[in-house]
Amino acid sequence: MKRLFQLSSTWFPIWLISLLMLSMISVYLPVFGGDNRNITHVPLIVANEDEGHAGDIILLHLIEQQNGSAVDWTYAKSRKEALNDLKNNKAYGALVIPADYSKRLAQIRDTLLAGNEGGEPATLQMLMNEGIGQSASMIATGILQTVASSVSEEVSGSLVQQLGQKRVLLSPANASLIVNPVRSAAENVLGLPLHLNKGMTPFMMILITSISGIMGANMIHGYLMRGNGMLQKQGAAVSESRLLASELMLGAVLALCVSVVLQLAVFGFFGSAHASGIWIIFLYTLFCCLTMLCLFKSLALFFGGWGMLVMFPVNIMGIFSSGGAVPLSTLPVVHRIFSFILPTRYMVDGMRALLYYNGRMQAGLGTALWAITIYFVLTLAIVISFMAKMNRKNKVKAADPNAEKINIQLDNGIHPDSPDSLEKEK
């Protein structure tokens, strides 16, 4: 054992894995660092239906103070257009300025100046996309409420100034109105039921398919190699190409089993909400699971003994950059870059579209299917090319009789240092 520990190769996995863990923690920990400083490019919509000029002031306020690296505002012509964009998962939420907004503010001003009571605050509507997950929904709600509060404060300050010039005395009811002349009303646009698991169901389902892919690619290979070793002792070993073909077949069976178990557990046992049919979700889950199996198997074939060191960070980076657990708008730049490269983000988007957006292609399912298909075709082609290469190699060995003769002579020969040779010398 002492000689074993003196070998440099013995300590190689120790320092290599330690170095890998150090690099991973330096990449992943910033995901959870800070509060609002990491929030960037939150997609929100503003729809101005106001027939007066007060709505334009809000738009100028958003352009000057709110837009930039933190928020990406897009402008809709109407509430209907904003609703359609939210149902297509184009934004986290929308701020709608109603048609009578300027008129209501004028009524509030006239009521306060006349000293009358019974005035009602003007309303800004907040349309929320509840299918994006709890974290992203909370971010959008906080930003929209901040905008509404800021608008209310500006209107309140203007009214106070006008009333001060007129020296108008306020009743308790009007004092409350002048403090909060603008209120916000939130509405969930998808009308989803309560069993959303905080919007985490799509992420959890894709997480299971990803873990199944990396475990399946490694465990199936390991156990088949072990079984083939037993067959080799019996003189019935399987060739490398057939062994790889067997891995693909067992991987397909594993993907089928995992997909069935997921449907039974998520929708049968836990009763999670879903807007699309179970069969469509099952086929999509199966497609994702097969793709992840082919992806990790192709990495294993490319990198050989180093495959696990490549597969593990790819798996973890895909999970973190998927936007399922942590919104993409809060992730560091490196994670947002990997979200476009790795397939996990597209898988989560597609599953979310199936579960919450009625399987609409515009809600992310169309892009997801394209991305997953490309990954599946490329990785499967890589595996098949390795299989063909192994098959050609086996044919060359079978066609070379000299190789077999050499092996037989070496196996049956007497080595110089063997006990038999020593006895003959004596």
Verbal overview:
This protein is 66% helix and 8% strand. The two termini are 35 Å apart. It has two domains: 42-188, abc type-2 transporter like domain (abc type-2 transporter like fold, 3-Layer(aba) Sandwich), CATH 3.40.1710.10; 197-399, no CATH class. It contains 16 helices and five strands. It has a five-stranded mixed sheet. It has helices at residues 2-6, 8-28, 54-66, 79-87, 101-114, 134-166, 172-179, 201-233, 240-269, 278-303, 307-320, 333-341, 344-356, 365-399, 401-412, 419-425; strands at residues 42-48, 71-76, 93-97, 122-128, 182-188.
Chart the SSEs and their pairings.
Elements: H1 2-6, H2 8-28, E1 42-48, H3 54-66, E2 71-76, H4 79-87, E3 93-97, H5 101-114, E4 122-128, H6 134-166, H7 172-179, E5 182-188, H8 201-233, H9 240-269, H10 278-303, H11 307-320, H12 333-341, H13 344-356, H14 365-399, H15 401-412, H16 419-425
Parallel strand pairs: 1-2, 1-3, 4-5
Antiparallel strand pairs: 3-4
- Total number of domains: 2
What percentage of amino acids are in beta strands?
5-15%
Computed Rg: 32 Å
Low-pLDDT windows of residues: 403-419, 421-426
Provide mean pLDDT, rounded. 82
